[in-house]
Amino acid sequence: MHTSIALGASAAVCLAALAVAQPASAQDCPVEAADAYEMTDVQVTALYACMEAAMADAYAQGDNPVADSYRDWTVTGVRPGPDPTHGDRLLLTFANEIAADTYLQFAEEGVEMLVGGILAKESIAINDGQGRVGPLFIMEKLGLDAAPETGGWSYTAVQPDGQMMNVPQSFCHDCHMNFEGRDGMAYPAAELRVAR
């Protein structure tokens, strides 16, 4: 099922840039669907099983501490799901100990993430019949004093070679403002959320 949201002009620029971001690492994980939205639950689960170890290894090649530890955090979805705000890649979000309780409520209004909460989103691109490792997208709540222009959030991304992606903060924040009532956090599709 293709889930769409209304995005502003700045979000459209964000999507275009994500689509041409650093080339993804190829895996020996074939995909029989044309894109992430056409994949069945079984196909997505099989693709993720094929790629998950390679993704963790790819991100950990650099020196980002989140890339080294996020796999020990709370997984928030039952499987990856396609996301139009991240270049139509399959995403699976992990929440650190500080973020997990707030995030897993999946509340629509009145949400405020605690300072120190971190979300890490693995991503898989579907290109030329193959699953490819996309960036690891990271959101960290620093607080308004530390990041007043981005609602207290810091946005970073780790490329498939472990190196940091150079992305201006407004690039991500302008997209995440579509989820203002949730403190800028997007959630997995309702049918993909873990049960509490």
CATH class: Alpha Beta
Mean pLDDT: 88
Low-pLDDT stretches: 1-26
Radius of gyration: 16 Å
CATH topology: Chalcone isomerase
> Counting H and I runs of at least 4 residues, what is the number of helices?
5
The number of strands is 8
The total domain count is: 1
- What percent of residues are in strands? 15-25%
Sheet/helix structural class: alpha+beta
The end-to-end span amounts to 23 Å
> What is the N-to-C succession of helices and strands?
HEHHEEEHEEEEH
Give a quick precis of the structure.
It contains 5 helices and 8 strands; from the N terminus they run αβααβββαββββα. It has about 200 residues and is α+β, with helices and mostly antiparallel strands.
Protein architecture, described:
The protein has 196 residues and is α+β, with helices and mostly antiparallel strands. It has helices at residues 9-19, 41-59, 65-69, 97-103, 169-176; strands at residues 25-30, 74-75, 81-83, 89-95, 118-127, 130-133, 136-141, 153-158. It has a single domain (29-188), classed as Chalcone isomerase (3-Layer(bba) Sandwich), CATH 3.50.70. The protein is 26% helix and 22% strand. The model is unreliable at 1-26 (pLDDT under 50).
